[in-house]
Each structure stands twice: as structure tokens, then as C-alpha cells.
Amino acid sequence: MNQSFIVKISADWYNITESRHMKLFLIPTVLLTSVTLLVNPILSLCILCFPSLRQENRYLLLANMLFADMLFLAINLAMVSCNSMGLHMPHWLCEFMMVSMVMTYSTSVLTITLMVVDTYVAVRWPLRYKEILPPSRARKIIMSLWVMATVCPVSLLVMFEVLMGQNKQSRPVCLVLIALHSLEQKKVGVHSYFIIAISLCTVLTVYCYIHLYIITKTSGIWRSRYSRARMTLLAHVLLLMMYFVPTLVFAVELALLKQESLEDVGVWINLVNMCVLMLLPRCCTPYLYILRYREIYKTIQHVLWKKRHQSQRSAA
Predict the structure, then answer these.
(1) What is the C-alpha to C-alpha distance for residues 281 and 283, in angstroms, rounded to an integer?
(2) How many Å apart are CA 56 and CA 40, to the nearest integer?
(3) C-alpha–C-alpha distance, residues 122 and 49, integer Å
(4) In terms of Cα–Cα distance, which of 101, 112, 114, 48 is closest to 70?
């Protein structure tokens, strides 16, 4: 595997997207990103500016996930736009964007997993919850999540730099998939990271949800088919699946790219994953939590009502 081979794959990738009119995937990318970035900043500011919300761990974790999602969406939009136009990015800019994408995506998955753990601890030890997970400790854990999410992409970048050497050529397509494919000599380590990370998050999430059901089944909150607890659990499980599925699809993409000839189906799957599947959970997350958390809904309603009232007074 050498640099010229990576340039060839990138050129073939761009030619396929050009000949099949795949630039149209930019439309759902822009729409989903815009809809999400319209709400995420407002929701994040409401959590960080109101002490009543900022002192609760679940809202701190939600704000962290929203922040990671906003960074991911901005970087993903820039990458998809540049790839659709065939812009030859400098290698350092491409590497920075790839590392940032993996880091922000990993942070979102780790944060949503920790949110499940936080709920489990709050229900399992309600009297000791503030002692076990005070807000100060939650902030340190959030910082640790970012460090953990940074270690893997940076280590992969170091391997990529060592493998490619100093002869780096610009290429029309900047993709994490192609960069990881270039680490064919290290593919066991790359696959192991994704398999271990997703397996740990899945096992931890399933364990917490099963024990939450065992702990709360005698309280009567599950008796009604449309109870709040049942609908909240269903929404969270659906959201978790939407966050995890793109990673599984990415593993399929790596398997398809092992072949010497680049197939159209691999490009289609990659674009659907980058432009739709990875964006859908991030688009649904802010609206879901606004509807499910009464405190957030009331806070946003209060802020919007206050701004509207002030604008009416100024107009009068």
C-alpha cells in the first residue's frame, strides 16, 4: 500500500460520484445539518446558562453530546462539500478533519452510553447518587471521555504518517474510510478498536437497561402500554440503535473496500452512511429531549416567551 494507490482510489471514488450524479447527496446533508444546528445551540445554551439545569448530570451529559454533535456535523458538512466538488485539500487539513470526525463521533457514542449508566446509578442508589456522581465528578468524567475519544484517531494518524512517509500527494477525496484502508498492514488493530468499543458500549447499555427494568418492575410504571417510562425507554433504545448502526455500516464499507477494484455499491453505501445515517440520530436528539424532559421544555418555553414579550414591548 503506497501513496499513489491512495490517490488512485480517491480519483476513482470522485469519478464514480461524478458519473452517477451522487453530488445530490449534498442536499440531505445540508438539510439535516441545518435542522439540527438550528436547535442544538439554543438547547446547549439553555443548559449551560441556567444553574438549575447545569447542576444535574443528565443535562451536563446532554450538553456535551450536543456540542460533540455540532462539531461532527460542521466537519462532516465541510468534508462532504469538498468531496462533492473534488477539491484537493492539503494533506494536513484532510488529516485534521478525519481525526476530528472520529473524535467527535466517538465522544457522542461514549456520552450517550454514559447517560444510560447515569440513569442506572440514579435509580439503583437514589440516596447516594449525589455522593457517587456529583456535578464536579461528572465534569471530570466528561473531560476523560474527550481524552479517550482522541487517543484512537491520533494513534491511527501516527501510524498513517509512519506508513505514508514524507511523500504526501493531494487527492480529490478526503475520507476516513480510505485512510483506514491505507493501513492494511495494521487492519487487525483498526478492526479490533471498532469491535471492542462497540461491544463494550452495547454490553454496558444492555446490562443497565435490564437491571433498570428489574429494579422498577414492581413500582407499576410499566403496567400501562403507553406509560411515560415505556415510551422513554423505547425512544432511548431507538436513539442508541441509530447512533450505533452507522458504525456497523462502516465496518461493511471497510470489507467492501478490500477488493482491488472500486465498486459503485461501496460508494453508494458510504454516501448514504455519511449523508443520512450518521445525521439522522443527531437530527432527532435535540427534539426528542426537548419533548421528553419537562425542565428543558419549560426553560426553552420561558426563554422564547421572554424574548417575544421583550420584542413586543420594544415595538410598542
Answers:
(1) 5
(2) 18
(3) 24
(4) 101
Give the Cβ contact number of residue 101 at 10 Å: 22
**What pLDDT is attached to residue 193?**
72
User: pLDDT-derived band of residue 311, with 50, 70 and 90 as boundaries?
Assistant: low
Burial category of 15 from C-beta neighbours within 10 Å (exposed 0-12, middle 13-18, buried 19 and up) = middle
DSSP 274: I
Q: Would you give the DSSP letter of residue 186?
A: G
pLDDT at 296 over 60: yes
pTM for this entry: 0.89
pLDDT of residue 68: 95
Q: How many CB atoms lie within 10 A of CB 80?
A: 23
Residues belonging to the chain: 316
In the predicted model, is pLDDT for residue 302 greater than 90? no
Residue 208 CA, distance from chain mean position: 21
Residue partners of 148: CB distance under 8 A and separation at least 6: 106, 110
pLDDT band for position 3 (cuts 50, 70, 90): low
Q: Which residues contact 10 (CB under 8 A, 6 or more apart)?
A: 171, 172, 173, 174, 175, 178
Residue that is written with C-alpha cell 493531494 in the block: 170
